[in-house]
Amino acid sequence: MGQAGGPTAVTNASLFGFVEEALLGCEVYGVINGLQGLAEDRLVPLPASTVKRHRRMREMPGAWLGAGRWPTREEDFEGYAINLKNRGIRSLALIGGNGTMWACLRLEHAARRIGAELSVIGIPKTVDNDLAETDHAPGFGSAARFVATAVRDVSKDLESMRNFEAVRVLETMGRNVGWLAMSGGYLRKRPEDPPHLIYVPEREFVQDEFLKEVKETHEAYGYAVAVVSEGLQGRARSDPGDHVKSPLLGGVSRELAQLVSEELGLSARGELLGMVQRSYSLAVSQRDREEAWLLGGEAARLMRAGVSGVMLGLERRSSSRYEVKIRHVPLERVAGAERPFPEYWLRAPDALVPEEFREWLEPLVGEDLSAYPANLSEQETSW
Amino acid sequence: MGQAGGPTAVTNASLFGFVEEALLGCEVYGVINGLQGLAEDRLVPLPASTVKRHRRMREMPGAWLGAGRWPTREEDFEGYAINLKNRGIRSLALIGGNGTMWACLRLEHAARRIGAELSVIGIPKTVDNDLAETDHAPGFGSAARFVATAVRDVSKDLESMRNFEAVRVLETMGRNVGWLAMSGGYLRKRPEDPPHLIYVPEREFVQDEFLKEVKETHEAYGYAVAVVSEGLQGRARSDPGDHVKSPLLGGVSRELAQLVSEELGLSARGELLGMVQRSYSLAVSQRDREEAWLLGGEAARLMRAGVSGVMLGLERRSSSRYEVKIRHVPLERVAGAERPFPEYWLRAPDALVPEEFREWLEPLVGEDLSAYPANLSEQETSW
User: Fold this and answer.
1) Quick check: A9 contacting B, CB < 8 Å?
2) Can you give B100-158 as a three-state secondary structure string?
3) What pLDDT was estimated at residue A234?
């Protein structure tokens, strides 16, 4: 069992879900720091006693075994497979995103080439929600819960301060996809509610239109909140195994706030919602955590049954009530593939946050969230 | 009733606590946007029906009446007093920080000069916790709860990613005081736990020492988390009524991260915890909200009793169990005064987060917070 890529608030639920199930019939080892641990043969035994003693770590954000990024080339995987073979390890589950699924596939092929028996299973994890062939992936629901509530609350704060600050540009994660940015509008109810504007990588970003929209919003409501994806500009689609070389993302919000100040003469603040959005324990969606746990356990069962070469995915069984079944997706179909925010939602007439998207998101972000009406103003004194 | 300055997650609890009590014997008006509303005579009636209909706004972050900053000079206050006198308003309560308390005092004096009967009461509010003459102020506990948990969670995330990212510099609010930055260490238990370093405005910041400490921490643990106050550098102490002219704060974390990258060659990320720390509804401390409510109600009772010229403060009655009583503090003693993080805690031998400070903070941040042990590593496999 290994964890790879950037962690989420529920990655460890998948880890413990897997390990506790796997221990029923196997000896289990943990790979330290994902692909790096495979490259350097750094594994630790995870006997039942250790797992039991640390069971509360399943609620800890981050990755208990260490995750992270590691530069890996196609030709490195045979070495990884040899390391595992030399230890007598027959199956590997990796928790990760589409880069990790690509690595799972390469590793399975490499093992076959060197004549090692190795079954490989991928457990999905991403806050960006860019994994193909699954309705959503663990980690996203909790991140979306944070983003939805943080955008609402920071907007309320700005609405109160609009005699001092005019514009806030809030930046979510989402390297190439707009799922999290769109989630920033989840608690919006009426056109005048913030966030007033959302910009995602799936739509072309036109600077002049952005400025025009901010200006009009500010004129209409006295303040403006825009949500943007970190991947808005540039959209450098690197190779899936190649995140390592790209610089730390983040910063488009500050650039845009500066643009607003300079071009519109409005006081503007750009803020990254930052690493807290993928790790914040107080914003975990319980359903997200449960699904992470379930997918971990299912991976262990599949492994014992000798299945290999699949990623687990989630599929909704019904559109009327929330119920999911677990799918087995061939790694080929997810490795390096991407899942943008759907075109049909982007084109929906209720534009900013399509009602269908809101309904889709509702069970994932969890309960006890409510929108608030507007601040009191002179216009409202006739109530 | 007016709200002034930057809002908090519980400012509206004070507002409703006040209004519901005041309505028992008075007609109540809301001042729109704090000092601006006083300057421009923008008031709205708050009859019981309106207040009842919007009662759930007491849990909303931000300021229901609008708050914000407004440039005010000594000579403006007579005009404010005349506006209130012309409306027949006899008492004013303002929720705010030390700048607001200064305005309350000036307004009371101005009213006396023009022969108006005006009693003025200040209700404390600050996330920085820099108000003098009170054990703490509403807003701080919730902000501290956010900071403590966010620092822990973002640190866990980094610990998982240390093969890719080495250093995070996390920036809290605190223009001139280090209360929130120190709260970032609340959930730290052992020397090896993050945050490893905390820098506050009360201590001289020496760049070379900072670099040395980051380097040593990284060598010891493979990663380093530093928490810094936004007011770390510059410490420009402007006049209390003069926040309006100062630029939006924030940014020292990015400067320091860049310094770490350049001087130590380590991958470093600077992140502002941002506006979410003073507004995040999911991190509200219930005790903080209750105290905000209670102080609002007490202000209304005092007002009906004809008291004027005081700010309400909180005083701990016992060091063994948490119990506070409400104090009446002459506005002179808080107007423009500041309350730094205490020197005796900064000098404590258990340095980074003094145990006494932790005990002081515990009842304020609320319950259900726990620290997590470290991530698993090869060294720990001998368990």
Assistant:
1) yes
2) HHHHHHHHHHHHHHCCCCCEEEEEECCCCCCCCCCCCCCCHHHHHHHHHHHHHHHHHHH
3) 47
A 65-94 residues with CB below 8 A of B? Answer: 65-70
Cα of B236 to nearest chain A Cα, Å: 19
Q: How confident is the model at residue B235 (pLDDT cuts 50, 70, 90)?
A: very low
Weakly modelled stretches of chain A, pLDDT under 70: 233-250, 350-351, 379-383
Do B164 and A274 count as a contact with CB atoms less than 8 A apart? no
Other CB atoms closer than 10 Å to residue B382's CB: what's the count? 7
CB contact A130 to B (< 8 Å): no
pLDDT at B250 over 80: no
pLDDT of residue A245: 38
pLDDT value at B252 more than 60: yes
**Nearest-10 crossing angle of helices A77-86, A98-113:** 70
Q: What pTM did the predictor assign?
A: 0.95
Report the chain B residue with the minimal C-alpha distance to residue A48.
B383
What separation in angstroms does the CA of B35 have from each of A381, B51, B72, B73, B80?
A: 19, 22, 8, 11, 9
Q: In this complex, do A66 and B377 lie within 8 Å of one another by their Cβ atoms?
A: yes
CB contact under 8 A, A271 and B273: no
Q: How far is CA B83 from CA A163, B47, B107, in A?
A: 20, 20, 11
Chain A and chain B share a number of CB contacts under 8 A equal to 206
**Residues on chain A touching B66 (C-beta within 8 angstroms):** 159-160, 162-163, 375-377
pLDDT tens sequence across A125-165: 999 999 999 999 999 999 999 999 999 999 999 999 998 99
Asked if A183 and A197 count as a contact pair (C-beta separation under 8 A), the reply is no
Catalytic residues of A: 128
